[in-house]
Protein backbone atom coordinates (compact mmCIF):
# COMPACT_ATOMS: atom_id res chain seq x y z
CA UNK A 1 0.00 0.00 0.00
CA UNK A 2 1.25 3.51 -0.81
CA UNK A 3 2.59 5.57 2.08
CA UNK A 4 0.24 8.34 3.23
CA UNK A 5 1.37 11.98 3.16
CA UNK A 6 0.07 14.96 5.16
CA UNK A 7 -2.11 17.43 3.25
CA UNK A 8 -3.05 20.71 4.94
CA UNK A 9 -6.49 22.13 4.16
CA UNK A 10 -6.22 25.75 2.96
CA UNK A 11 -9.61 26.58 4.51
CA UNK A 12 -9.52 25.25 8.09
CA UNK A 13 -5.74 24.50 8.23
CA UNK A 14 -6.42 20.96 9.39
CA UNK A 15 -3.75 18.43 8.41
CA UNK A 16 -5.22 15.30 6.82
CA UNK A 17 -3.48 12.03 5.96
CA UNK A 18 -3.76 11.31 2.24
CA UNK A 19 -2.85 8.03 0.54
CA UNK A 20 -1.89 8.48 -3.14
CA UNK A 21 -4.04 6.34 -5.45
CA UNK A 22 -2.54 3.40 -7.34
CA UNK A 23 -3.56 2.42 -10.88
CA UNK A 24 -2.65 -0.53 -13.10
CA UNK A 25 -0.30 0.55 -15.93
CA UNK A 26 -0.82 -0.93 -19.40
CA UNK A 27 2.25 -3.10 -18.73
CA UNK A 28 0.52 -4.62 -15.68
CA UNK A 29 2.66 -2.95 -13.02
CA UNK A 30 0.98 -0.96 -10.22
CA UNK A 31 1.56 2.78 -10.68
CA UNK A 32 1.23 5.02 -7.61
CA UNK A 33 0.85 8.73 -8.34
CA UNK A 34 4.01 10.46 -7.03
CA UNK A 35 2.49 13.07 -4.73
CA UNK A 36 4.87 16.00 -4.18
CA UNK A 37 5.84 16.10 -0.50
CA UNK A 38 5.63 19.64 0.82
CA UNK A 39 3.60 20.73 -2.22
CA UNK A 40 0.83 23.27 -1.72
CA UNK A 41 -2.66 21.81 -2.32
CA UNK A 42 -5.07 23.94 -4.34
CA UNK A 43 -8.76 24.23 -3.43
CA UNK A 44 -11.04 23.14 -6.26
CA UNK A 45 -13.55 25.92 -6.83
CA UNK A 46 -14.29 25.17 -10.48
CA UNK A 47 -13.51 21.94 -12.31
CA UNK A 48 -12.07 21.80 -15.80
CA UNK A 49 -11.41 18.57 -17.66
CA UNK A 50 -7.84 19.57 -18.52
CA UNK A 51 -6.87 20.38 -14.93
CA UNK A 52 -8.31 17.09 -13.71
CA UNK A 53 -5.57 14.95 -15.31
CA UNK A 54 -1.81 14.66 -14.77
CA UNK A 55 0.94 12.97 -16.78
CA UNK A 56 2.86 10.32 -14.88
CA UNK A 57 5.56 7.97 -16.17
CA UNK A 58 5.61 4.29 -15.17
CA UNK A 59 8.91 3.42 -13.49
CA UNK A 60 8.73 -0.16 -14.81
CA UNK A 61 8.10 0.26 -18.54
CA UNK A 62 8.72 3.99 -19.01
CA UNK A 63 5.27 4.58 -20.51
CA UNK A 64 3.87 8.06 -19.85
CA UNK A 65 0.08 8.33 -19.58
CA UNK A 66 -2.54 10.70 -18.23
CA UNK A 67 -4.15 9.76 -14.91
CA UNK A 68 -6.82 11.43 -12.73
CA UNK A 69 -5.22 14.21 -10.67
CA UNK A 70 -5.20 13.21 -6.98
CA UNK A 71 -7.77 15.01 -4.84
CA UNK A 72 -8.36 15.05 -1.10
CA UNK A 73 -11.49 15.99 0.84
CA UNK A 74 -11.35 17.64 4.26
CA UNK A 75 -13.88 17.26 7.07
CA UNK A 76 -14.79 20.94 6.62
CA UNK A 77 -16.09 20.15 3.12
CA UNK A 78 -13.17 21.61 1.18
CA UNK A 79 -11.84 19.52 -1.73
CA UNK A 80 -8.26 20.16 -2.87
CA UNK A 81 -6.08 18.98 -5.73
CA UNK A 82 -2.82 17.49 -4.44
CA UNK A 83 0.29 18.40 -6.50
CA UNK A 84 2.20 15.62 -8.26
CA UNK A 85 5.96 15.47 -8.81
CA UNK A 86 7.07 16.06 -12.43
CA UNK A 87 7.57 12.94 -14.53
CA UNK A 88 11.21 11.76 -14.30
CA UNK A 89 13.43 11.21 -17.33
CA UNK A 90 12.64 7.78 -18.77
CA UNK A 91 15.24 5.08 -17.98
CA UNK A 92 17.12 3.37 -20.82
CA UNK A 93 15.42 0.25 -22.25
CA UNK A 94 16.02 -2.84 -20.14
CA UNK A 95 16.53 -5.60 -22.67
CA UNK A 96 16.45 -9.17 -21.31
CA UNK A 97 19.56 -11.28 -21.49
CA UNK A 98 19.73 -13.71 -24.45
CA UNK A 99 17.77 -16.84 -23.73
CA UNK A 100 16.13 -15.39 -20.61
CA UNK A 101 12.55 -14.12 -20.92
CA UNK A 102 11.68 -10.77 -19.38
CA UNK A 103 9.94 -11.06 -16.03
CA UNK A 104 6.28 -10.07 -16.13
CA UNK A 105 4.67 -8.36 -13.12
CA UNK A 106 2.10 -10.39 -11.27
CA UNK A 107 -1.53 -9.49 -12.06
CA UNK A 108 -3.47 -7.62 -9.41
CA UNK A 109 -6.48 -9.60 -8.19
CA UNK A 110 -9.76 -7.73 -7.75
CA UNK A 111 -11.04 -7.20 -4.24
CA UNK A 112 -13.95 -9.46 -3.20
CA UNK A 113 -17.24 -7.89 -2.18
CA UNK A 114 -19.42 -8.48 0.87
CA UNK A 115 -16.60 -8.72 3.42
CA UNK A 116 -18.10 -9.94 6.74
CA UNK A 117 -17.62 -7.89 9.90
CA UNK A 118 -14.38 -8.68 11.69
CA UNK A 119 -12.55 -9.75 8.50
CA UNK A 120 -9.79 -7.40 7.30
CA UNK A 121 -10.82 -5.80 4.02
CA UNK A 122 -8.50 -5.82 1.03
CA UNK A 123 -7.58 -2.49 -0.52
CA UNK A 124 -10.46 -0.84 -2.36
CA UNK A 125 -10.13 -0.94 -6.15
CA UNK A 126 -11.41 2.43 -7.42
CA UNK A 127 -13.30 3.06 -10.66
CA UNK A 128 -11.86 5.99 -12.62
CA UNK A 129 -14.50 8.70 -13.05
CA UNK A 130 -14.92 10.18 -16.52
CA UNK A 131 -18.71 10.49 -16.70
CA UNK A 132 -21.64 10.99 -14.33
CA UNK A 133 -22.48 7.30 -14.73
CA UNK A 134 -18.97 6.43 -13.54
CA UNK A 135 -19.69 8.31 -10.29
CA UNK A 136 -22.64 6.02 -9.56
CA UNK A 137 -20.58 2.95 -10.47
CA UNK A 138 -17.77 4.04 -8.14
CA UNK A 139 -20.21 4.58 -5.25
CA UNK A 140 -21.83 1.21 -5.94
CA UNK A 141 -18.48 -0.61 -5.84
CA UNK A 142 -17.49 1.22 -2.66
CA UNK A 143 -20.71 0.23 -0.86
CA UNK A 144 -20.18 -3.39 -1.93
CA UNK A 145 -16.65 -3.15 -0.51
CA UNK A 146 -18.23 -2.00 2.77
CA UNK A 147 -20.35 -5.16 2.83
CA UNK A 148 -23.58 -4.18 1.05
CA UNK A 149 -23.23 -7.05 -1.41
CA UNK A 150 -26.66 -6.67 -3.04
CA UNK A 151 -26.54 -2.91 -3.62
CA UNK A 152 -27.53 -1.96 -7.18
CA UNK A 153 -28.48 1.16 -9.08
CA UNK A 154 -32.16 1.92 -9.46
CA UNK A 155 -33.69 1.23 -12.86
CA UNK A 156 -34.65 4.87 -13.16
CA UNK A 157 -33.59 7.68 -10.86
CA UNK A 158 -36.55 8.63 -8.67
CA UNK A 159 -37.81 12.18 -8.27
CA UNK A 160 -36.27 12.17 -4.79
CA UNK A 161 -32.87 11.36 -6.28
CA UNK A 162 -32.14 7.82 -4.98
CA UNK A 163 -29.48 6.23 -7.22
CA UNK A 164 -28.60 3.04 -5.32
CA UNK A 165 -30.54 0.60 -3.17
CA UNK A 166 -29.57 -2.45 -1.18
CA UNK A 167 -30.75 -4.35 1.87
CA UNK A 168 -31.06 -1.72 4.59
CA UNK A 169 -29.51 0.99 2.41
CA UNK A 170 -30.38 3.88 0.09
CA UNK A 171 -27.75 6.15 -1.46
CA UNK A 172 -27.63 9.24 -3.64
CA UNK A 173 -24.76 10.37 -5.84
CA UNK A 174 -24.25 14.00 -6.91
CA UNK A 175 -21.87 14.07 -9.92
CA UNK A 176 -22.23 17.82 -10.59
CA UNK A 177 -19.53 20.45 -10.11
CA UNK A 178 -21.65 22.38 -7.59
CA UNK A 179 -21.67 21.80 -3.83
CA UNK A 180 -24.50 19.50 -2.77
CA UNK A 181 -27.42 21.47 -1.29
CA UNK A 182 -29.35 21.00 1.95
CA UNK A 183 -32.52 19.82 0.19
CA UNK A 184 -30.77 16.82 -1.37
CA UNK A 185 -29.45 15.70 2.02
CA UNK A 186 -32.90 15.88 3.58
CA UNK A 187 -34.54 14.08 0.64
CA UNK A 188 -32.26 11.05 0.76
CA UNK A 189 -32.59 10.94 4.56
CA UNK A 190 -36.40 10.86 4.24
CA UNK A 191 -36.09 8.02 1.73
CA UNK A 192 -34.02 6.08 4.23
CA UNK A 193 -36.54 6.83 6.98
CA UNK A 194 -39.45 5.58 4.83
CA UNK A 195 -37.56 2.36 3.99
CA UNK A 196 -36.16 1.86 7.52
CA UNK A 197 -32.74 1.97 5.84
CA UNK A 198 -29.44 3.76 6.24
CA UNK A 199 -29.13 6.78 3.90
CA UNK A 200 -25.68 7.60 2.47
CA UNK A 201 -24.59 10.47 0.20
CA UNK A 202 -21.69 10.74 -2.28
CA UNK A 203 -20.72 14.09 -3.83
CA UNK A 204 -18.09 15.00 -6.40
CA UNK A 205 -17.85 18.70 -5.46
CA UNK A 206 -18.40 18.61 -1.70
CA UNK A 207 -21.27 20.01 0.38
CA UNK A 208 -22.79 23.37 1.23
CA UNK A 209 -22.16 24.36 4.84
CA UNK A 210 -25.82 23.99 5.90
CA UNK A 211 -26.04 20.62 4.11
CA UNK A 212 -23.01 19.36 6.01
CA UNK A 213 -24.41 20.57 9.35
CA UNK A 214 -27.77 18.96 8.72
CA UNK A 215 -26.15 15.65 7.79
CA UNK A 216 -24.23 15.70 11.08
CA UNK A 217 -27.49 16.27 12.98
CA UNK A 218 -29.18 13.39 11.13
CA UNK A 219 -26.14 11.09 11.51
CA UNK A 220 -26.09 10.67 7.72
CA UNK A 221 -22.72 9.49 6.29
CA UNK A 222 -21.23 11.89 3.74
CA UNK A 223 -18.46 11.08 1.26
CA UNK A 224 -16.66 13.19 -1.33
CA UNK A 225 -15.31 11.57 -4.48
CA UNK A 226 -12.33 12.46 -6.65
CA UNK A 227 -11.74 11.47 -10.25
CA UNK A 228 -9.89 8.34 -9.15
CA UNK A 229 -13.23 7.07 -7.89
CA UNK A 230 -12.05 6.81 -4.28
CA UNK A 231 -14.64 8.12 -1.77
CA UNK A 232 -13.33 9.99 1.27
CA UNK A 233 -15.36 10.38 4.50
CA UNK A 234 -16.18 13.95 5.56
CA UNK A 235 -18.08 13.38 8.82
CA UNK A 236 -18.14 11.05 11.83
CA UNK A 237 -21.00 8.83 10.58
CA UNK A 238 -18.99 8.14 7.42
CA UNK A 239 -15.94 7.21 9.50
CA UNK A 240 -18.08 4.81 11.53
CA UNK A 241 -19.50 3.23 8.38
CA UNK A 242 -15.97 2.58 7.10
CA UNK A 243 -14.89 1.16 10.44
CA UNK A 244 -17.77 -1.27 10.96
CA UNK A 245 -19.17 -1.77 7.44
CA UNK A 246 -22.62 -3.17 6.71
CA UNK A 247 -22.41 -5.83 9.43
CA UNK A 248 -21.93 -3.18 12.11
CA UNK A 249 -25.14 -1.26 11.30
Automatic annotation (TrEMBL):
<feature type="region of interest" description="Disordered">
    <location>
        <begin position="87"/>
        <end position="122"/>
    </location>
</feature>
<feature type="compositionally biased region" description="Pro residues">
    <location>
        <begin position="87"/>
        <end position="99"/>
    </location>
</feature>
<protein>
    <recommendedName>
        <fullName>Restriction endonuclease type IV Mrr domain-containing protein</fullName>
    </recommendedName>
</protein>
Amino acid sequence: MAESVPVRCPTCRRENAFTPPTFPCACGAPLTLPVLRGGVPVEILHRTWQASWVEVRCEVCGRQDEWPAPESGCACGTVVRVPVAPAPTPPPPNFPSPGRPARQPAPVSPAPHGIPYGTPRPAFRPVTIRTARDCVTAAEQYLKWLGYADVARTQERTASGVDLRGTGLVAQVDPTTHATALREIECVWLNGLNDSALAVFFSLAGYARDARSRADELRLPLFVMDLTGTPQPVNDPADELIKYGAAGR
